[in-house]
Each structure stands twice: as structure tokens, then as C-alpha cells.
Batch of 2 targets.
Target 1
Amino acid sequence: MDFNPLLGPVVALACWTILMLLWFAAMLAPVLVKSWGKIPKGTRVRDIAELPGMVQWKNHNYMHLVEQPTIFYALVIALILMGDNNAINVTLAWGYVVFRVLHSLVQATVNKVEIRFLLFIASTLCLAGLAVHAGLEAAHHLA
């Protein structure tokens, strides 16, 4: 099987998601050590009162990376399985990844909502383009 260039963005976003998880864990560890034994059983990380905003931002971003990107993964895998490696879809997939990484960096550092929103919209437009192309490709195969 030949390498499909759509695999690159899938692997890149999965690796970025893991990096965000590790960044969050590194920020969370000192808070947990400081609060050791004081946190009630069953408490969710987001409910720890002593959790600084800078730590919460990384947690929120990690959660964002396991929400909408699941659609991205499904669409790109579908395109790959349908044999698609069209340059426009490769560009849209990389665009999605770049906008998600930028969104992560903004949310994890300055957390300026207006900037995050614009990056979210840009990534969602890339995702919508992939959805349209996957739908057209599926319709073509079904016809």
C-alpha cells in the first residue's frame, strides 16, 4: 500500500494532542503534590479549587482536542479508505491541523477568546470542506 499524504495530518494532530496532554500533566503535577491527601475522593481535576487558570486552560484545550477533531479523524480516514489523496483535501487537512495547533497555543498561553474564536472558525471551515469532499466522494462511489 502506498503512503497516502492524508495520513500526515492525522499523525500530526494525534501527536499534538498527546503533547498538550503532557503539558497539562506537567502543570498539574505540582498542584496535586501540594494538595496531596486534601482532595476528596472522586473529585474531577476541573473541580480542584486550587487549580490555577493557566493549568485549567491546558486542560480545557486538551478536552477540545478530543472533541471536534474526532470528526476530522473520521473524515480523513474515510477519504483515505475511498482512495482519495486530492491535493485540496491534503491542504484542508493540514490547514485544520495548523489552525488547531495555533488555537491550542493561544488557549494555553494568553487565552484571548476573540483570537481563539477566529482560529476555531478557520479550522471548522477546513473541516467543513473535508466533509463536503468526503460526501461527494462517497456519493460518487455509490452512484
Note: Residues 113-142 form the longest helix (30 residues).
Target 2
Amino acid sequence: MENKEQQVRKLYEQLISAWNHRNAKGMADLFSKNGESIGFDGSQSNGPEEIFSHLDPVFRDRPTAPYVTKIKEIRFLGEDIAIVRAIAGMVPPGESDIKPDVNTHQTLLLSFQNGKWNIELFQNTPAQFHGRPELVEKMTDELRELL
């Protein structure tokens, strides 16, 4: 049986897999009924239905790039609350390298309800590091190691 950290890690991996497979329903189903998603561009969606309605046309109409991710921290704030911090980069379709200007910090707040972990908040924050190009390069290099 998986321990809590493994369960939380698996949920994050399911979220990333759903994005990488352009599966809006798969992503939306990982959220609690009040879960919120804040996208890279700042767009907000609340609840699985709205998250699905936001993502479905994105996946249908745009060639979204898959994520390359690395979990930096999993922290428990109690028995049934966890935070996941990760870094992510994207490899645009038809390319083979990470595009540094869309690197992001990903933060998830998870809750354990009805016997399973659910996403309460998923936020993508652009990792622009204004005026500090060495930090962009460092993050990009760290993600490139995973390619």
C-alpha cells in the first residue's frame, strides 16, 4: 500500500500526464468540487466543470506543449492537507528542447476527502526571474536533465 507521500506524488503525476495527453476531463476530475486552477496566463477556473470547460477548447484548438516537471517539495500541513511545489518547463511540438520563457513554478494544495486526495488549488506561476537570467538558465538546465 502506498504511503501518503507516494499518493500525493501520484496525483501530481496524474495531473501532468493528463495535461501531456491533452485530456481535459482527466485533469478536471482530479479537482475537488471547489478546486481552483490558475493558469500560466492568470486565468482562473473553479470546480471540475469549469476547469473542463476552460481546458477542453485549449486542447482542441491549440497545439499545447507537454510539461517536463520536477517535484521540489512535498509538505504535509496535517493528516489531510498537503502542498506540492514543482518546477516545470515545456518542449514545444516539433522541437526537442525546453523553451525557457515558459518555465513555471507549479504549486498544488491537496486535501484528503472521502478516501482520496483531491486538488484544491493548482497554480502555475511564470518563472521569469526578471533581471536574473542566470536563474532562468539554472532552472532550464535542471529540467533539461530530465529530457
Note: The CA atoms of residues 6 and 74 lie 10 Å apart.
